[in-house]
Amino acid sequence: MDSFSSRTPLATGGPYGPLDVFKVDVVPGARSLPFALTVMLENLLRHEDGISVTADHVRGLADGSLRGGRGAVEFAPSRVFLHDTNGVPVLTDIAALRDAVVARGGTAASVDAVVPAHLTVDHSVVTDVWGSPDAPSRNVALEYQRNTERYRFLKWGQSQLAGLQVVPPGAGIMHQINLERLASVVEVRDGQAFPDTVAGTDSHTTMINGLGVLAWGVGGIEASAALLGQPVTLLVPPVVGVELVGVLAPGVTATDLVLTIAEVLRAHGVVSKFVEFFGPGVSAVPLADRATIANMSPEYGSTCAVFPVDEVTCDYLTFTGRAPAHVRLVEQYCRLQGLWHDPSRHADYDERLRLDLGEVRPSIAGPRRPQDRIPLEQARARFHAELDALRPGRRALDEVADTAGAPPLPASDPPATPTTTTTTTSTSRTGTTVETTPSNGEVAKQVAQEPASASVVASADHGAVAIASITSCTNTSNPAVMVAAGLLARNARARGLATKPWVKTSLAPGSKVVTDYLHRAGLDEHLDALGFSLVGYGCMTCIGNSGPLVPELAAQHGEQDLVLASVLSGNRNFDSRIHNDVSLNYLASPPLVVAYALAGTLDHDLVHEPLGIGTDGGEVYLADVWPDDSEVAAVVQANLEPSMFTRSYATIFDGDQRWSALDAPSGDTFGWDPTSTYVRRPPFLDDVPDRARPPHDITGARALGFYGDSVTTDHICPAGRIPATSEAGRHLTGRGVPVRDLNTYASRRGNYEVMLRAGFANPRLVNQLVLDGTGGATRDLLDPDALTSVAVHEAARRYRAANVPLVVLGGREYGTGSSRDWAAKVTALLGVRAVIAASFERIHRQNLVGTGVLPLQFLPGQDATSLGLDGTEVFDIEGLSDGASTTESTDSAAAPIGVPLPERLQVTARSADPASARPPVHFWVLVRVDTPVEAAYYRAGGILPFVLRRVLAREPATSST
């Protein structure tokens, strides 16, 4: 439909010929819309069907009557973006959906992708080997050894789903590949031109917002639905306009800027809001800096963080090798649609902030949250405060009041130079000799058995930097900070400085272009000499695939219980994410990562204390080796060119010989192996009835866990290394998996039995139901005399056997972090019917609804503690059943869209002891099922049952259950 007569031809004058566009300014009010809502308006015009998208939706978006959460719309992204550790669960869901359709008489082919999609294999490679020239090849060999089964499954998915293209291992990180290659800004398809828009299974999908592409993270379940043609539904959010003025001061990096923005916007409150940058300062922000800022949108909580399209955008498209005709089309289309940046235009923003770039100062962030920015000069003092909190009984460390009179720091010995023999062995900085070509798990075995030799770490103390990694798409996509790191390494070497021997150093860029320009500039040799040699192209340390520590430091940590630190150029530093044995984790720019590797400890003032003693006997300070901005710019300009990008991405989908050799399983349904420890058919579509059952009150529920503020999806569903002593580790070793092959939680997301045991298992998650507060443990409240803790999954099993529903109690910002659908899936799998929290992060709240778990929010000013709850109560949640039985009959195939849930429910928390004199606590909660489509998903029992019934309704088949 085209109620507004918006469809009009566009003469491109290029190879595309005439294209149809849906012109937004024909709708009253459109000219004052922010950039992001203009893109959404075009999407509604193009998909108007009179049912899901109506003329009233179009008018309401344009005139503001739907803004600020007052109404919902359906948004159809032009493509879906996945990575392997979220993509495998997406494909297992789709494979299970095919099974369920076939079991009921339908055809497997009816479950197919109708939206183009890319899946990048970038989250599985681990930093097992480092400091060696062949580290990348050996790490990739180990990656294939561990993940071949998963990769064969991905190749099956690519062969079965139309439009799904897989980027094989070793190419880079999904968001950097999206920025440098995949994103079009303006899409041309079926004779139409329209904005490129993306729904991605990683929360940092927002990175492409820096290129003017509207995109945000969704859960894997929602991505599955989007692949199958189900639009993404959302309340029309408030738009926060952030006016940028001024320019960055000398020596201040894009990382410093984004950490400042994360602090400011998290404090302001932008959860479930759009953020949009405007003003005269926008033109002064390079595209790479825009991408850095947009990448960390989930760290400050916004749904997206968009920059408009302008000359900077088009220059970047040209620079990265996009076709000239397409770049011209981007400018022509965006000018036509009012998407071209006009510094004098002030859109109708719901909220406004102003940020002076000139006030940003060098910073790091941590040690547990990205928004906790620390000015660099305060880092040492803040470290001591954290150490005091972690070890309150420790002997106070000596504080040096007059740094000028401090004794000189000894120059550390340079690390052993990596050498390679002419035959089959090589020696790394860790002193380990291994085979260059792995076979039958030998490399993994030898890496795991690296010797802890001499006392090269005898001087390591609390705060020792165990890991210093230049990693993650956030910063490795930015040539300025990468070149700055290389120049700092060069300058430090020239003064005779070297990395401390206990620091595990690594370089894991997001694309091969990075190593190309570092090599061309001659900076790779300096990074290599300080230990920052290439270990692979992937998320690696930032996702938690940091691999083993330097063996000597690991041994000292075990003996002395050292509080260790990591410093990385990533975007996430949540508890236990980077490494199980590293307590304090800090985000920093790539040059500061190098600086902390030289210092070797957080117990060091980089601003006022020398990094070390140079070969001339003089003190060397950070300021002495920090590169000048003009030199950084000159090196970038001299050593980057478009041919680097076109050459690097020419064979992006081909993969290496290992990938080509993998045989993909055949058949339009997948042949599940019941003995597999990686890929198992998920149970979410087992026993789904033909008709959605009406929702009922939740009575007699017990709390599975009672948690505080800022519980992240990493707390709920860890991603890093699986310890052998964990519940998941014991399960796998019991199935015959060697300890060296346990791999990571992220790699095992295709196996629901492992994920079940990973639920709430982060060792630093504090459960107030148990005395020791250990993650992965809770109390069995069915036994009032049992005070000892039991594993969460075991307690859930006991409750299920007793037919007792479960709830989880949480604090503020519940579910912050990654768009990890398994954080919601495991919640549902454990039998949790509702999560009651003080506030929710957007993606996790949507994921809970998508798995049939009810997100309930305490009223403002209330939480579990203020209401006097201790988590041992019996909970009754009343009001869900009202009117449900009469409305469900309107649709025999799926839960009806348009039947809302109550806005509030009453909860009664009563003592489990009938003889107790403690009165029950009555309180109201908000039902955070925010849109009519979400209500339909919840009534259906989740997105997958909803989609199953919709597919069957289109199939000429007879249901069998």
Structural commentary:
The strands form eleven sheets. This protein has a seven-stranded mixed barrel with strand order 27-30-31-32-35-34-33. Strands 6-5-4-9-10 form a five-stranded parallel beta sheet. It has 961 residues and is an alpha/beta fold. Among the domains are: 79-359, Aconitase, domain 3 (2-Layer Sandwich); 374-390 and 457-649, Aconitase, domain 3, CATH 3.30.499; 698-715 and 805-954, Aconitase, domain 4 (Alpha-Beta Barrel), CATH 3.20.19.10. Residues 394-455, 883-892 and 957-961 have low confidence and may be disordered.
In a nutshell, what does this entry contain?
With 961 residues, the protein is an alpha/beta fold.
Helix percentage range: 25-40%
The CATH architecture category of the domain at 79-359 equals 2-Layer Sandwich
Residue stretches low in confidence (pLDDT < 50, at least 5 long) are 394-455, 883-892, 957-961
Q: Specify the overall morphology.
A: globular
Helix/strand/pairing category = alpha/beta
The CATH class assignment of the domain at 79-359 is Alpha Beta
User: What Rg do the Cα atoms give?
Assistant: 27 Å
End-to-end Cα distance:
38 Å
Instruction: Write out the CATH superfamily name of the domain at 79-359.
Output: Aconitase, domain 3
Tally of contiguous helical segments: 32
CATH topology of the domain at 79-359: Aconitase, domain 3
Largest sheet: 7 strands, mixed, barrel
In order across it, which strands form the biggest sheet? 27-30-31-32-35-34-33
Percent range for β-strand residues: 15-25%
- Overall pLDDT score: 89
